[in-house]
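[step 3/7] fold_predict: job queued, chain A
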Amino acid sequence: MYGFFLTILVLNGIFLAVVILLQAGKGGGLAAMGGGVTATEGVLGGRQATTFLTRATWTSGAIFMVLALILAILSSRGGDTGSILQDDFQAPTQQPTPVIPEGGAGGGEEPSPVIPDGL
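[step 4/7] structure written:
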């Protein structure tokens, strides 16, 4: 379920970015692109494009916020409720054994001698 909502959120975010970039800014946007009367003038030019793109932006933004809230709730329910810092600052349960510089472990044991083959 989490993966489904995450996929929908990503697709909605891409759609939202495209709709925002299509809107007319101070320079005129896509409706003014091309310098004169173009094929986009009839489809995206004028008041109809502004109304459609504005409604699409508000709707897509609202869906994005709702999906983000749903994902936040789902992610908080699925995990452990403990602190993430709690595990890092706990004292170790066992003391490490000291290491003798010759390579053996310090516990009263004698290190075994290593004899190379060929001598």
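[step 5/7] annotate
The chain is about 50% helix and 0% strand.
Residues 2-78 form one domain.
exit 0
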